[in-house]
Amino acid sequence: MAHRLFEGKEHAEAYLRFRVSPSDHLIQQVVDFVEKKVRLSTWKGRPFDLALDVGCGSGQGSTLLAKHFASVVATDISPAQIEMAVAHASMPNVTYKLSTAEELPLAAGSVDLVTAMSAFHWFDRPRFLQEAHRVLKPHGCLALLNYTLDMELSHEGCPSDTLNAICEEFYAALRPHFSPHLRTTSKPLYKESYEAIPYPHKEWHDERVRRTVPLSGFIGMVETFSNYRALLKKDPKTARRLSSITTHKLMTAMKVTSPETEVVVNLKYFYVLACKPAED
After folding, report:
1. pTM of the full predicted structure?
2. Distance between CA atoms of 58 and 11, rounded to whole angstroms?
């Protein structure tokens, strides 16, 4: 079954403000995979015709795809997320649509690339994979991307071990509030789906992505995660106190007085790339 989260306006605003998108390099890896498969088909080269970004949220990943495709359709189940994406759209070749992941609003055999960026684990995965197969062209590609929640921090002049011990305390306090659907990480769900995808051409990748953000941005990103939101819903006072204490501990360790001080966030990405065969 599909799991519906991240749908309120306030949460959509936080998504837009704090969630990080995949790096340009990671998106390039996806596009290079598509280009390799083009050689097996009669497609023209770049820009490719159509990408479909499913579970697009506030549209950060969709915007990155728009640099490589003539058009991008970006879908999400949340009206608030789609409204936020449309309000802040920066690429004219991206169209945002309200849609479930299990009933995609595109014709069979029409799409060059289907992506799901930090969203696939919330879908009804077998039904979504069937729909992705339906809309993909022969030799069309599927990309499922996500990152683990145990992010690491670094800051010049401060031992990383010290910062990450504080982060681990933050993560440990949130672990009891993980969705039972995810357990403590979504990675096994992706591994299971990778093994189950029947396409002969498929790849599994792990990659680290480093982003420089204000310390407040790192805390804000953690606050968008489902386990923090579950705690916030259950006990708002405890959730906000946890964020405040963590911020204070990190600032003390870094010997800084402003939560706008920049830190480097190291995210552990993993992703699946697969290519639909020419014939079913």
Report:
1. 0.90
2. 10
